[in-house]
Every structure is written in C-alpha cells, then in structure tokens.
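Forwarding the complex inputs:
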Amino acid sequence: MEGFITMDHGSGGKKTAALIDELIVPLFRNEALAALGDGAVLPGGGTLVFSTDSFVVTPLFFPGGDIGKLSVCGTVNDLAMAGGIPRYLSLSIIIEDGFPLGDLERVLSSAARAAAECGVSVVTGDTKVVERGHCDGLFINTAGIGTLACPGLSSSSIRPGDRVILSGTAGDHGTAILLSRSPELLEGTLSSDCAPLHRAAADLYSLGPALRVLRDPTRGGVATALNEFTEEKPFSLVLEEASIPVDPGVRTACDLLGLDPLYAANEGKLLAVVAPEAAESALQILRSHPACCRAAVIGTAESDHAGRVILRTRTGGSRILQRLSGAQYPRIC
Amino acid sequence: MEGFITMDHGSGGKKTAALIDELIVPLFRNEALAALGDGAVLPGGGTLVFSTDSFVVTPLFFPGGDIGKLSVCGTVNDLAMAGGIPRYLSLSIIIEDGFPLGDLERVLSSAARAAAECGVSVVTGDTKVVERGHCDGLFINTAGIGTLACPGLSSSSIRPGDRVILSGTAGDHGTAILLSRSPELLEGTLSSDCAPLHRAAADLYSLGPALRVLRDPTRGGVATALNEFTEEKPFSLVLEEASIPVDPGVRTACDLLGLDPLYAANEGKLLAVVAPEAAESALQILRSHPACCRAAVIGTAESDHAGRVILRTRTGGSRILQRLSGAQYPRIC
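Prediction (whole assembly, two chains):
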C-alpha cells in the first residue's frame, strides 16, 4: 500500500471508510467486524456488545463538556446504538510529559461523574506517558461492554416507507468545538450536546422489530451516518430540509464559517429508522428524555434512487448528500 | 492536585502506582478496578475478564516484533494473567498525519497475524488522525474480553513456602528496545521476547488452587511486578540471583548501559507463584511451551521481612529490590 495518512483519513468520511474497508476489514476478517456498527455484537451466544473509541478532541475542555465526559458518553452511546445496555468500561490514557495534574484530575473527575450517571463501572485501565511534543496533552481511549438487549438492529432491515428520526438539533457538538477554537467568534454562545443516550435508546428497544437501526451521527454528521445506512442498499433516504432541527446559533455559526450542520458532529443525538406505524411512538419515547426533546421525523426511506441520501431543500429543489469528503472537521472527538 | 505529569508517571514504577492509587482508583471506585490486576474479572456472574493497554513503543518496528504484534500479545497476556481465555479484541489507532500507509499495513498485518495465532477475533475498532507533531507516528490501544477459566488468582493467596517461577530469561524486551534506539551498540544481537502466553497460562490453570497468582512483568520488570505482589502483605519474596535466567547478551548490554535486567520490561514472560508441592509440575508445564523453555524457580515466599522483595546475590549478600523509581525505560511498550 503506497502513500501517506492524511487528516482526511480521520474525518469519519470517505477516506476513513476506504481505509477501513480496504485495509482493516480484510486483514482482521470476521463477521462481527465486517458489520461495521457502532459496536460489535459478539458472536456465539450473542449476549454481549463490545465497542471502543479513542478521543483526541482539541481543546480538551469545551462548552458543554470535556474529553473525559466525551470519552465515557461516546462509548456508552456506541454500545446503546448497537442494542446494548452499557455495563463496563475500560479507560486508557496517553499523557504528554508536562501535562498539569490539576487538568488530569478535572478530566478524570468528569469521566467518573459521567460513568456514575450512566450506571457503568470503569473496571480496568492503563496509563502511558510520552515525551513533550509527542502527543497533544491527553488522549483517552475507552472500550465498553454491554449486555445485548435489542438484537438484530441493522440498516439491512430498512424498508421503503420507513421513517428517519433525528433525536434533536443537528451539528451542535462539531460547531461548538470549532467555535471554541476561535473565541473571537461568538464566544460562549454555543454548547456541545455531549450526553449519554443509552436510556433513550433502551426505551426505543421496546418498539421491537419496528425499530430498524440506530446510529449516533458523530464524525461526518447526520449526512455521513445516513450514507452508511444506504450504501449498496435497495433504498434511498430522502430528507426534508425544513424538518431537520438546527439550533439558530448553530445555523448562524455554520453560515459564518461556511459549514453545513448536516456534516457537523453530534455527541448527544441519535438517528433511528423505524417502521411508519411506529414513528409516532418513537417520537413520544424520545421526547420524554430531556436530551431528545426536539426529536423529529426528518425523512423517509424510498425505493427510488437506491443507495442515495437525498435532501429536499426548503426552496423545493433536491440534492444528493454524499458522505463527508475531506477533513472538514479535524479532531472534534 | 498540583504539579505536572512527568515521564516517571509512565514508568510502571512508583509514580505510576501513586497516580493510580491516589487519583484514578478513588475516582472510579469499584472492587474490580481496585484489585489492580492485569485485567478485571467482571463482577456479577464473574465469567468474563476485561483488560486494556495503550501502546506507544518507539521504535514501531524492533527486533522480534513491532507495535502491532505487541498490542495484540500485550492484551492477550493480560487477559491470561487474570485467569481468562482470550476471545475478542478491540483495536483503536491514533495516527499522525503523513504516516506511511505501507508502514500502517505492515503493523496491522502483524497484529492480524498475532490475533490469528492467538485465536482471538478483532471485532471492533476506531481510527483517529492527528496533525503532524501531535502524536509520534502511531499509537495503538487494544482492549480484550476473555472467558474466565481460572477464578481467584490473587497475590493474597500467597503463603510462606510458595515458590516464585519465572518462565524464562529476564529483561529481553526492554533491553532489545533500548539497543534498537542505539544501533551503534551491538546491533542485531538482541531480540524482544514479545510472544503470547495464553496457552502456557491455560495449562497452568490445571494446577488449581496451588496456582496462587500470575503476572506478566512488563514495564518495571520482574522486580516491580513482584513488589506489586508483596505490597502490604504478610510475606516477603526472596529471590536467588543465581537462579534467575538472564540471556548473556542482555547481561552484557545491561552492563554496558548501566541497567538492571530485573527492572527491564518483558513482553513474553510470566511470573507464577505456586504452592511448593506444585513447583515441579509448573516447571514441566511451562517448559513444554517453546516461549517458556527456560522456566525456573527463582525464589520463595517467606514470613520474615514482610512486604519486601529481597535479592540474595551471587556473592552471598542480600539487598532489597524496590519498585522501579523514575522513568528508566520510557516508551518500551
């Protein structure tokens, strides 16, 4: 394999997908990995869900959260999206020589608070230190184990007519992180949505087979996550732009920065695809959770234009939403 | 908490222990974490073992292995030391912008080969990219799940008279890594012992309660791992220097570099403490595995000098072996 890793490979978009599909999945081939869900349902028995994420967000502290809270919520959410009730986490840190112990304490206290709130135990961990200039302050990896409560969640179950639900406003986390790097812009007006979603997800499991699939649209945003659902599938997902909740501050900031909230990361939102008859129940379930109070149906699965994600715009036009290409938002998680 | 992280906090020695004991364990308090084993036996049911390690070794490729093989063997060994049969791994990479794709392919191919040899499946993962100068080429985290085959392994079970067994020569990995950074010294003569130990460990489980505890002496080496056994315990571990196998090349290199092989890391060796009547069986079991063919009884548990690790030297003297203090060997794993 020739060439070099670029920031694009970490975007969560096209080049990340290519790296995973062309290098990683063939090397480690097994069904659980190839499913490429947010977490893996362990084969044989099939009662456990396993997931991992490394967090390299910069800055470490941002409005609405920090790398500690994010590293717990991120893995808790991945387990929940895979149908699991989160139980146990590992937490592994790589720290740069010279990092302030007080900041480490703040980050780990925040992670501990988030774990307690989520009802998960951090049962194992690891600590490494590297020389100055050899990492960027602090990186955290968490891995998580959950008990499988909702087997069979898969984008393969989506049928034309199904509804796409987003649990709240799009793009809050990515936009807040970018703004926090440019404090001269709108300082303090936007906040990350970083939050655990496992309780909302667990309530959705009660929908049974009418719940087709769940995903938390992190890197690459709503547009990229939905493209993962439609890729090589016999359906399209057609979104109504007017139905997609976007915080006015996020919209203004995205306009200023030349960004699209549909490609900006979320850390406290989920996408659910449900059978049409379950859409109203799903909305009620979600809206009973504070983090999901602005849940909305944002689109429908259709048989035309199979494999595509299409946006019907406010002005009556329509355009294809591709996966994120390029590293539009480096290090937002 | 005041002050700053230093390289010492990553040594695996005293300051690493202090950071874990004073900051991390109190924050996340639960029994599984507080046991501070190589892996955690999950509470409630108690049929699973969970472990994680981040790998920041430099150089990425070294005689006898590379960061890919190391990251699989390291977690496989941690699970085995905790009494688990390794089953599933997660693998998460943090890559520096500009890293050669060919090197990534070599590393991941090596990890995939090691996983296949160990009979474990890499079922989930994550890929992050950071800007040039914000990490050092490639860091890998693995987490692993094993099924508990040997419950109750604990240094609390050690009794006076028990024998300490080391599965082979001490200090090969750490010394090989240090030499590989100074190729003008003895280039090519030493090789890391990086190897999976789960099969040897599983055979030792057949000893039943006569097998008290297992540990792979990685960072901080044999001396530090044994100190973890004796800390606040009513026994000492007394080692016979003449019985401790050390490769002649490692001894020469350590003499040259002013190092002690008992504090140098191992990545393919285990320490087992066994009841005296089981010592001969344990040696036979270990020696049937190529990676453990030089297994030897290196010491005995005694009731005098409780809490200490003591070395009886070749010249008839004796000295206390403390935990590693300071960052004698940065980034060897």
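Chain A has a mean pLDDT of 94.
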